[in-house]
Backbone:
């Protein structure tokens, strides 16, 4: 399923970061619902987003009443207020929002956000609103199947951070906790009449020397959380995890 540019976003918290993110996403044609308990902030954005709503984001009943199940991605922008961000993230998970991105102010905050349901946790110091908007707009899971024990089989458009690097250089399994089982690639052809053309070809089980390119679609298997992280990676690599 292609998420660009018709992806539907909810942004909780309209401080400087959340407001900038809402404006950037809307400017690219995304459907944005902006949420905050401060009416002045809501009013400032209502002309620029699809919907701006005054609501207490830690009120589970009020949030459930907004019917956010139509949202593809929710971003919790309360990076400084840890209690609010944790409660809002947990509520979004209970509602059933499929992808939750939250800002963390510390390593402990990051771990708690993970435990209560955040699929991706960002650093407010390094993840600027504009760069996050770019990565969210490129979010693309072509097809996904649920397997046992929370694992998924998914086709994901290769994020920019992977282009030009080999599977071995990336230490793909250690870095992403995913296994690449194939790569779908557009291959150049020449027709009988001499006209150039292209066709999609599945390259199974790429080895460590296999170099990933722009336009590749990765076929991966792994935990659902890891699938979502790779799908929204953008152009910055995460650190390598433990082997």
Residues:
């Amino acid at each position: 399923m292609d998420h660009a540019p018709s992806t539907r976003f909810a942004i909780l918290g309209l401080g400087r970061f959340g407001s900038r993110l809402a404006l950037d996403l809307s400017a690219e044609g995304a459907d944005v619902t902006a949420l905050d308990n401060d009416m002045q902030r809501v009013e400032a954005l209502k002309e620029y987003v699809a919907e701006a709503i005054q609501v207490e984001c830690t009120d589970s009943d009020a949030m459930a009443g907004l019917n956010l199940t139509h949202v593809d991605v929710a971003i919790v922008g309360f990076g400084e207020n840890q209690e609010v961000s944790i409660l809002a993230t947990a509520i979004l998970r209970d509602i059933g929002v499929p992808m939750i991105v939250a800002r963390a102010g510390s390593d402990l905050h990051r771990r708690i956000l993970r435990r209560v349901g955040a699929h991706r946790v960002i650093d407010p110091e390094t993840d600027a609103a504009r760069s996050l908007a770019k990565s969210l707009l490129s979010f693309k899971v072509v097809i996904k199947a649920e397997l046992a024990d929370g694992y998924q089989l998914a086709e994901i458009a290769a994020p920019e951070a992977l282009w030009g690097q080999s599977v071995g250089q990336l230490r793909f399994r250690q870095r992403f906790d995913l296994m690449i089982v194939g790569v779908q690639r557009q291959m150049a052809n020449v027709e009988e009449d001499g006209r150039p053309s292209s066709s999609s070809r599945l390259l199974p089980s790429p080895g460590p020397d296999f170099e990933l390119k722009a336009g590749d679609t990765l076929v991966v298997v792994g935990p659902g959380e890891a699938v979502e992280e790779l799908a929204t990676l953008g152009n910055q690599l995460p650190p390598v995890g433990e082997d």
